Amino acid sequence: MLLYLNMISQTTLGNLLLPGVCSFEISENILEMSNTAKIIIPKEYGKLAGKSVLDYLKVGQRVEIQAGYNGELYTEFIGYIREIGADAPITIECDDETYVLRKPPLVKSYKSVTLRQLLTDIIPKPLTFSCPDVHLGKYQIDNASAFAVLQDLIQHFGLYCHLQNGHLRVGLAFDFGEKALKSYTYYLNDPERGNIKKNELKYKRAEDYDIRIKAIAMAGTGKSITVTVGSKEKNASERTLHFAGQMTEAQLRDLALGTLKKLVFDGYTGSITGFGFPTVHAGDSLTIFDKENKDREGKFLVEKVDITYNDTDGYSRKCTLNYKIK
Question: Checking phi first, is residue 296 left (phi over 0); if not, alpha (psi -120 to 50) or beta?
Answer without folding.
Answer: alpha
